[in-house]
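hey team, just a heads up i'm posting the complex here instead of the shared drive bc the drive is being weird again. everything in one block, sequence lines first with there labels, then the predicted structure for the whole assembly after. its two chains so it's a bit long, scroll down
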Amino acid sequence: MKHRCLVPIGVLAIPIAIAWLGVPVAGQAPSTAAATKAAPAKASTAKSTATKAYTPPRTPDGQPDIQGFWTNSTYTPLERPNNVTKEFYTPDELEVAIKQAADRETAQTEPGTTADVHYDFTQFGLDRSQSTFAKNLRTSLITNPENGKLPPVTPEGQKRAAERAAARKTQGGQYDAVENMPIGSRCIIMAGAGPPMMNAGYNSNYQIVQGPGYVMILTEMIHDVRVIPVDGRPQPHSNVRQWVGTSRGRWDGNTLIVETTNFNGKNAFRGASENMKVIERFTRVADDVITYQFTVEDDATWARPWTAEMPMQKTEGPIFEFACHESNYGIANILAGARADEKRAAEEAAKKGAK
Amino acid sequence: MRTRFVTVTMAAVLAAGLALVVTTATAQTPGYRAPRTKDGKPNLNGIWQALNTANWDIEAHPAGPSPVRDLGAAGAVPAGLGIVEGGTLPYRPEALAKKKENAANRLKLDPEIKCYLPGVPRGMYQPFPVQIIQSPKHIMIVHEYAGAVRTVYMDNHVEAPADSWMGWSNGHWEGETLVIDTTGFNDLSWFDRAGNFHSDGMHVIERITARSPETLTYEATIEDPKVFTRPWKISMPLYRHVEANAQILEFRCVEFVEDLMYGHLRKQPSK
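-- predicted structure starts here --
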């Protein structure tokens, strides 16, 4: 599961994440596109094979230039919804799917309630459709397996998932201690930060800067920086474990290939093991689109490797500082609230006992 | 505190109590001309680190005991000649009182203890590597500490859109020197562990110049009339990490401070 929780949004953000995992096509009539700055239809909805002729510009030192500000914000789910059997929507069907997903985001809170004032997704730019997002005719990000679903989980993967679930139960309730709260709410890292770099509910923005021998990718959420060497160096010792793993890149023609290993397993992607290997491919297929493809290899979790693909759409910068932990009043307030509730409950219980 | 010992030389220097490394006169080697990037700019790309005790105290200071008793000598404060030109800071009287109060309550107040973003210039001389990645439009300054990052905008200079920890940096080249003009700070970061502080009116002008293939001269002028009676300047060398395959590693310190910050709000076992 992925949940992105800007701290003020806190726990309310979690249901959103679950909500987009399935985008049924049946339902409401098509309407005007919600995107205010939707990309040119030609580039943004192209199937990735249609743009082979494009030659990206070069950086001063000759790397294909993928620099700039990009977003992978999308309404396309990782896995194909159960009621969809084809690989691509028609443009009309896509509009319907987007409208339904956008409506679901808007409808998360009851109009007129405190929660609605606080978490109105049509305000504050939280509604994805208010800013640039990458339209994608694909019905799922997963391209392989061809059914658009994750491969079966291996017995070892199932055992690990059961053990992790059991461990979560023994550690108590979510508000018992900070360690029990979601890592995104704690401002450590967003659950989908990756690699693979999954889109978040909002702020799915990236800045790419290339210097000699390096590609740097700054993720807006919690100012996550990946400095990827592209000079052929080996991976560090397997004892060096990181939340985001360690990445090594190389250019294959116009495609940047990045291999990442050495994960610490604490932000396990979809239940993966710490031995997961992620191979990402960044190919700029138009001035305003990078095709971002990734393959996940983890035979301790999935019966076979799987691959997903999504466009990254050029967007406007700059990316402003995301000082998450520094303003994280939510954690202290939530925990203090839980302790106050417990105290009140204990006092009431004592009163009843005294009667 | 966490210090990365990167080379035999650096480890030896640190073990020797950092006696050698802090000088305020670090002007570039006269006439040194840095190698150029392909677009013709001085090439400052690399992983750099200060080798001084400025993160303890940017002013000239003697050695002192550890603020945390259990850390003994490992947590003690090494002496330093200071990185401030003239040795001390020109505080306004009321600001000096606040600095002293900060120092006295450092364990509670120093933002570094809570893994907060380091601010500028502190991030440049914390005991962590700093990577410079140069492109024509943006120069990135990436800090290992807390994953802090700064974009230096080389074109399209605009005013800071809002206040922030790391400020808003506009850069330009003056011959051999990268000049970075940073404003838009909040008033929350400190200069060091000694409680030296600034206001949200701070303006930092940094000058970074290669002084040899493996060293830079880092200078910064700080203007903050709410706190100081006049602008003041710091200066120090930054040393290149020359070891094979050096890289910025992850120091995602939020998880290391959670118990310190939120432990008192943990559910207590029922009696």
